Amino acid sequence: MTMNNQGRPTAPGTVESNELPTISGDRGLDHEEALIFEIGRAGMTGVDIPQVQMSDTKLGGLRRKGPVGLPGLSEPEVIRHYVRLSRMNYAIDAGLYPLGSCTMKHNPRLNEKMARLPGFGDVHPLQPEATVQGALTLISDLMRWLTTLTGMPAVAMSPKAGAHGELCGLLTIRAAIAARGETRRRILVPESAHGTNPATAALAGFTVDEVPATRDGHVDADALEAKLGPDVAAIMLTNPNTCGLFEPRIKEMADAVHKAGAYFYCDGANFNAIAGRVRPGDLGIDAMHINLHKTFSTPHGGGGPGAGPVVLSAALAPFAPLPLLVQDANGFRMIEDRAELPAGAQPFGRMCAFHGQMGMFVRALTYMLSHGADGIRQASEDAVLSANYILASLKDVMSAPFGEGPCMHEALFDDSFLEGTGVTTLDFAKAMIDEGYHPMTMYFPLVVHGAMLIEPTESESKESLDRFIHVLRTMALEAKAGQRTRFDGAPRLAPRRRLDETAAARKPVLRWKPKDLPQAAE
Amino acid sequence: MRYLPLTNTDRSEMLAKIGARDIDALFRDVPKAAIVGRSAFDLTDTKGELEVDRLLSRMAAKNVAAGSAPFFCGAGAYRHHVPAAVDHLIQRSEFLTSYTPYQPEIAQGTLQYLFEFQTQVALLTGMEVANASLYDGSTATAEAVLMAQRLTKRSKAILSGGLHPHYAETVETVANLSGEVVRTPVTPGNAEDIAALIDDKTACVVVQSPDVFGLIRDLRPIADAAHAKSALLIAVVTEIVSLGLIEPPGAMGADIVAAEGQGIGNGLNFGGPYVGLFATREKFLRQMPGRLVGETTDAGGKRGYVLTLSTREQHIRREKATSNICTNSGLCCLAFTIHLSLLGEEGFSRLARANHARASALADRLSKVKGVSLITPSFFNEFTLKLPKAAKGLVDKLAAKGIIAGVPASRLMPHEADATNLLIVAATETTTDEDYDAFVAALAEAMS
């Protein structure tokens, strides 16, 4: 134990002293928190609403017969409950969040402020169009930023997240193929793809044909070309790919795909590596969704909401879904009806009610205006630089399956450096939690054994990266030296130790139930 | 650029460590012809916070905010008062800037509130289990139809004419790929005879209550008719506050409930982001789409929560997954669950009663205007009026006077001749008697 010159301990005590039970069950700032259903009581409320007289003659005889079963709490109790819950979460604002493929970058608070302006946050999707010209202008401006940055002529704005954008893109392709009088039902998906790609292809009515990866982490372009044929509708490729590498033969693959009469769908999850520097339209891409919650900093919010606009090539643009935003002498308007379509438009349908994730649009445009084209380019460069810095600083102690680099915006390691140590990728990642870090993405992409995918983003200072590198280097060296103490059973210092996921799945408890109700499935 | 912490010195040192001459060397796999310079983008450069704020505030000011006018739009999105605590809490960094809770040891905050959310949704809808949300009500409805097709191994989905047309179109987009979608005729102010259409090929019937015109539907006979043919009833709710006063779909025999949760905790936001609620019977659990949070214990024996049954999901099952969904509506769920926790049983019931009382008062006043009739004999906080002329023209006229009078049915169903003169009007706890005075006077004047 280290002491300062007053004899006060400055280093953390041992695990054992940390585990001294407290009377309350809480530990200093770490509070345990019961379920809200266990702390409320009948009759209390945190919102004062007058009790009104009301007749039930207009309820069609269907007035609710019993109570809902909600607990009653005052406002301070509710606030304390959620504040305590919040403190059990890791967050970007609190520390480096190197989750590969997820682009956990800084979420500027100006974005939040702008989205809450009453003119954006308090307008209804079906108000008369004359009363929402500012909102439609914002969507139009965002469309211009997206099409300009991607070098694509059109964009469908309504998809509500990345996977929804994938569906939109594939349905556009399906409609384009149908318009040619053809039926093509096969989609080529690399084995390194995000799980959403094959799932979306299946949902859109296609069969999935996997394309293998080469030894150096790229899509096997020769294998892909060999699989092309008259029944292939499209390829779905992530570029930069999920191994963190740019596909050097992308243009060649695009040409081959087009020559075979198919379309090129790009998963835009990794656009943050190239925004402002490379235009997907120049690579021969026909459709690409853009995760506004990744590249354009709209908050991940614990898993949503996202937004997944899809940029489209000239060949696919006519098939974009409703609604369509158009501008005429009277200003902007939304075309929601097939009878009013502009010449050539053949929308495949509608992705969702209303016009898309406006709240996310405001945040994304705020980010774009703040950065500007120069700042977006700088951000991509910094993201790539930081990932390469991590790769270069760790590759001698961890194992980089694809050699010397360079990588794009994420650095991929496998578990061969842990071979024979008894420490697994999972142990290594969980030990990072005790060091104050969120683990990297683990066991993805599937093409690498025990994958660890690190995406630092452009939001970290060099000091922060150096500290992170120091921690990971030390951990790797300890593991290799057979010092397993900090890995076995990690984490120790988090609000919870490892959780039993097997038990959770075997006998699912998916909701709270009052004690007098049976807990098991009937 | 204020969001980028690296200095030029840092960048040089980092390049040196990497052994790269310059940043271009890191992009060496990109075809040279595909690398473009700043001039390729006709876009503005970095702007300070003040400048961006000014620009966007001007844009926002060109819209008429609902709170600044007598305002009566509903039809799938409802304006309610959201307590200040809700927006404060959802902006806590630990909620706002965290990701999907894949590392449960450091995500118990998100996991526990999702578990509570699932419980609340199950209770509200009267169902046994609920998921951790989908994108919105319309996409939840589409997922429900796909789930019914999987469960019954049948192809046909029958959609009630009272289902919000945007929802029906969203269902058609995906359900037509794997089966057949039949829409029954639109019968404003009446329930259609949907039971007669159910046959041995029917996977499900989809009925919204209150329907798009505001009419409260009795789901029990439809559930019985569906079950008699081994089909499922999907109940759709677009105004979730209605369940504070109306029998929940689960008590009327629904097999799946797909609902829009925006009305609790979430603002109008010009149509999104919202929060899709999805609930069903426990026996259908394994065919359910979307994330689920389950209770378990940690290695130290403490109760905790994890994402569970993920063998249904795309990241494990890939093309065999129950859905392609990955992202849910995390932060919107949080807003929903905090608002509902603040309300509690008593507050939620009072809120629902206040809404019905406010709407009843408005319906009484408007139906006394000459030439106007109320066509929905039952309703919660939204009803439909038949006007003597086209609703759209009147709504535009009233908008010019600063009154947002509601949604013309023709906006949602432009090809229904009978809908031309119909106006869908919503009133909530936020609409006042002064708003009603202005609305009634302006409507009478516009029609005279």
Describe the model.
The complex is a heterodimer of chains A (522) and B (448). By secondary structure, chain A is of the alpha/beta class. Chain A has two domains: 257 residues, Aspartate Aminotransferase, domain 2, CATH 3.40.640; 122 residues, Aspartate Aminotransferase, domain 1, CATH 3.90.1150. Helices cover 31% and strands 9% of the residues of chain A. Chain A is built from 14 helices and twelve strands. In chain A, the strands form three sheets. A seven-stranded mixed beta sheet of chain A has the order 1-7-6-5-4-2-3, sandwiched between helices. In chain A, β2, α8 and β3 form a beta-alpha-beta unit. Chain A is globular and about 75 Å long. Chain A starts with 14 loop residues before the first helix and ends in a 16-residue tail after the last helix. The relative contact order of chain A is 0.12. In chain B, 37% of the residues lie in helices and 13% in strands. The model of chain B has no long low-confidence stretch (mean pLDDT 96). The radius of gyration of chain B is 25 Å and the shape is globular. Chain B has two domains: 120 residues, Alpha-Beta Complex (Aspartate Aminotransferase, domain 1); 255 residues, 3-Layer(aba) Sandwich (Aspartate Aminotransferase, domain 2), CATH 3.40.640. The longest helix of chain B is centred in the last third of the chain and has 37 residues. Chain B has a seven-stranded mixed beta sheet, with helices on both faces. A four-stranded antiparallel beta sheet of chain B has the order 10-11-13-12. Chain B has a two-stranded antiparallel ribbon with strand order 8-9. Chain B is α/β, with parallel strands linked by helices and 448 residues long. Classes of the chains: A alpha/beta (522), B alpha/beta (448). Chains A and B meet through α3, α4, α5, α6 and α7 of A and α1, α2, α3, α4 and α5 of B.
